[in-house]
Write a structure and sequence with these properties.
This protein has 398 residues and is of the alpha/beta class. It contains twelve helices and 15 strands. The strands form four sheets. Strands 13-12-11-14-15 form a five-stranded parallel beta sheet, with helices on both faces. Strands 9-8-7-10 form a four-stranded parallel beta sheet. Strands 1-2-6 form a three-stranded antiparallel beta sheet. The structure holds FE3-S4 cluster.
């Protein structure tokens, strides 16, 4: 039985303006969710860290809160645009200062600047049944599905409000009813490569919308950790379900009655999804290659080969998070071979070089957000992306 409270019972100790504002927002979110109960959370994960998403009003709001607010539960940060001590060469000093102010405001509130979209990898993973207030959709889906923790898909302000007062509305995926699968799916496709698991997530999202699936995996290989991350990220991006269950792989699958297989996903469906994910023509020039979505373990090595500087070579960006501030770089990156680590950053929410029009990535989720910025995108395996970072051309066969 979950330990919940009425909103009016939230303890008020040492209130500040920030906590009062946070409580007001939690109350409003409870009204929207048609509940008068809240549940204590063990951690929060806040999005809205890139200055390019926040803008001047968002920064002012954060600096106001930071003047008096302190988080009451362990709180981590989603990726920013780029780590200010190590800015990519195409950003200006002004842009760097603005990004640094956002991070300083969060740190003043006691938020740990992990700057990762995989908070279950940068610190201890949440335990089964724990309630969280997380705001990164891929992390929300991973925590609900693979870990059996409970979090709604919070917005950035809602997650920050929960961090400041320690409670979130007791609604949605915090309750068992919303976690129940509604459709049985048999997958015979091989999910050994993470990008193929991402294609499955995109296909399921397009086909099922927000309906929660119960999967049976009958293919040659099941996903590894990166594959589960890719599946979670793409499912919620293309459909909206922030939870899925998998027989013999996810902790809540056995808690529900079995469902007949109404849908079968074979290699053919994933191949068709792969074709849908390519806007680029064979031989077309690629300006930027991006891997690391969602972020992997801190300190993971870049898949891009180092090489001699060459003007025709695309920018190759590898994003990853960190455990602690001191793991982040203190010097600008070496850009000689145009292959950059983007520690704490995410190209989907950061300024890109002006010449970038065509992007290759191994992530179905990243493809969605890069397309929404008006870019032409192709999704391919990590190995193929590494090759494209050398040839600068979309291949004739992926
Ligand atoms: Fe993370 Fe950015 Fe992908 S936030 S999930 S690397 S689009």
């Amino acid at each position: 039985m979950d330990r919940t409270l009425l909103i009016s019972e939230i303890p008020s100790s040492g209130e500040t303006l920030a906590h009062t504002r946070a409580l007001r927002l939690i109350t409003a979110l409870c009204h929207v969710a048609r509940t008068d109960r809240v549940v204590p959370v063990v951690s929060a994960h806040v999005s809205g860290v890139s200055y390019w998403n926040l803008g001047p009003a968002g920064l002012e709001y954060l600096e106001d809160l930071a003047a008096c607010g302190r988080v009451r539960v362990p709180t981590t940060l989603n990726p920013c645009a780029f780590w200010p001590a190590s800015p990519p060469p195409w950003v200006t000093d002004d842009q760097t200062r603005l990004q640094a102010r956002v991070l300083a405001a969060y740190e003043a509130m006691g938020v740990t600047p992990t700057c990762s979209c995989a908070p279950y990898l940068t610190g201890p993973a949440p335990l089964f049944g724990e309630h969280l207030a997380w705001a990164e959709s891929s992390a929300v889906t991973f925590a609900n599905s693979l870990l059996g923790a409970r979090t709604e898909r919070e917005g950035g302000p809602g997650a920050l409000a929960a961090a400041l007062c320690g409670f979130t509305p007791y609604a949605g995926l915090h309750r068992m009813e919303a976690r129940r699968p509604r459709v049985g799916v048999r997958v015979t496709a091989d999910l050994g490569e993470p990008w193929r698991a991402g294609l499955l997530g995109a296909w399921l999202g397009r086909t099922l919308g927000a309906t929660v699936p119960l999967l049976t995996l009958d293919g040659r290989r099941v996903p590894d950790r990166a594959g589960w991350q890719a599946l979670a990220a793409a499912l919620v991006t293309y459909g909206g379900a922030a939870i899925f269950h998998v027989h013999d792989h996810t902790p809540e699958a056995s808690a529900f009655c079995d469902l007949p297989h109404q849908i079968v996903v074979t290699e053919a469906e994933l191949d068709a999804e792969g074709v849908r994910q390519i806007d680029l023509l064979p031989g077309e020039g690629v300006d930027l290659v991006f891997t690391g979505c969602p972020h992997g373990v801190p300190g993971a090595a870049s898949p891009f080969p180092a090489g001699a500087p060459s003007p025709g070579r695309p920018w190759a960006l590898f994003a990853r998070g960190t455990r602690h501030r001191h793991e982040l770089p203190i010097h600008p990156p070496d850009t000689a071979d145009r292959s950059l680590a983007l520690p704490g950053g995410c190209p989907a929410v950061s300024p890109l070089p002006g010449e970038v029009r065509a992007v290759a990535t191994d992530s179905a989720k990243a493809a969605f957000y890069l397309r929404s910025r008006g870019l032409r995108v192709g999704v391919a395996s990590t190995g193929a992306c590494a090759e494209i970072s050398v040839t600068g051309r979309w291949p004739h066969a992926v």
